[in-house]
Design goal:
11 strands; Membrane-bound Lytic Murein Transglycosylase D, Chain A; 4 helices; alpha+beta; 4-stranded antiparallel sheet; 27% strand
Length: 260
C-alpha cells in the first residue's frame, strides 16, 4: 500500500466508528402554552346563552368552538363592519325558550328585609399532565397521561387553595366559585416540561375547563429503542471494533512511513 491509500483508509475507519457510536438525540421539546378547552356555558334565566370573550379570541375561533356561524354572531350582537371581539366582555351566541314559571296564588306581602348578595355560581376545572413524546406541546391521540405531577389551584382572592397529584385520568376540581384562578403543575422527577407550568384561568358559573400540561422524559432517563432513532447495543459494539481497527491502521501506517 502507498501512503495515500493507507491515509484514506485510516480517515474512513475513524469517521465510520464515530458515526456508529454517536447516541441519538431525543426530539427537541418546544415550550408552549398548556391547552385549554372551554365548553358552552349554560343558558341564563331569560334564555340567553352568553360567552365571555377571552384574550386572543376571534370571531372565527368562537364560531368554530361554540358551533355558531359568524353571520349569527354579527346579527345577535349588532356588530358593524369587521367582526372583532373585546376581551372580558360577554357576547350573545344563542337564545333558547326561557323556562316558564308556574302560575299560582299571589304571595302575601310581608315587610322587606335586607337580602344577602346572591351567589354567582360554580364552575369546574380539570387538569391533566400528558407524556409529550414528540415535544410539540400538543397532546396527540397516542400520548398518555403521566401520574405523579404536583397540581396546585388557587384563586386570586385567597379563598380557595387546592392541591392534588396527576393521575391516568384528568383530575377535576368541582364547585369552584366564579373568579380568576392560578393553576400550576410540577412535573415528576426525570421529566422536563414542554409547556408553561403555570396558567391563569377565569372561571364562570356553568363553565367546564380542561387544562393539558405537557412533559417529556429527560434525555438521561429516556431509553430510545432502535425504532425511535436510537442505536442497538450491537451497533455500539460494531462502532468500537471499527475504532480499534482504525487505531491499528494508524500504528501500521506509522510503521510503514518509518520504513520508507
Amino acid at each position: 500500500m502507498n501512503k495515500r491509500t493507507i491515509s484514506s483508509l485510516l480517515v474512513f475507519a475513524l469517521l465510520l466508528g464515530v458515526l456508529l457510536t454517536l447516541p441519538a438525540l431525543p426530539a427537541a421539546a418546544s415550550r408552549g402554552e398548556p391547552q385549554a378547552y372551554l365548553f358552552t356555558p349554560t343558558a341564563q334565566p331569560d334564555g340567553r346563552i352568553l360567552y365571555r370573550v377571552q384574550a386572543g379570541d376571534t370571531c372565527t375561533g368562537v364560531s368554530l368552538r361554540m358551533g355558531v356561524s359568524i353571520d349569527q354572531l354579527v346579527l345577535l350582537n349588532g356588530i358593524r363592519g369587521e367582526c372583532t371581539l373585546i376581551a372580558d366582555t360577554d357576547i350573545l351566541i344563542a337564545t333558547v325558550e326561557p323556562q316558564p314559571t308556574s302560575a299560582g296564588p299571589a304571595p302575601t306581602e310581608t315587610a322587606l328585609f335586607p337580602s344577602p348578595t346572591p351567589f354567582a355560581g360554580y364552575g369546574e376545572v380539570c387538569v391533566r399532565l400528558f407524556d409529550d413524546l414528540n415535544g410539540n406541546a400538543s397532546m396527540e391521540a397516542s400520548e398518555l397521561s403521566i401520574s405523579g405531577g404536583a397540581i396546585s389551584l388557587t384563586d386570586q382572592v385567597g379563598q380557595v387553595s387546592e392541591t392534588a397529584m396527576s393521575q391516568s385520568e384528568p383530575v377535576c376540581f368541582l364547585e369552584l366559585p366564579e373568579g380568576g384562578y392560578s393553576i400550576s403543575m410540577g412535573v415528576p422527577d426525570g421529566y422536563n416540561a414542554t409547556t408553561r407550568t403555570s396558567y391563569t384561568l377565569n372561571v364562570r358559573a356553568g363553565d367546564q375547563s380542561v387544562l393539558d400540561f405537557g412533559a417529556q422524559l429527560s434525555a438521561a432517563a429516556q431509553p430510545l429503542p432502535p425504532s425511535e432513532g436510537g442505536r442497538s447495543p450491537m451497533m455500539g459494539i460494531l462502532g468500537g471494533l471499527v475504532l480499534v481497527i482504525g487505531a491499528a491502521l494508524a500504528v501500521y501506517a506509522r510503521f510503514i512511513f518509518r520504513k520508507q
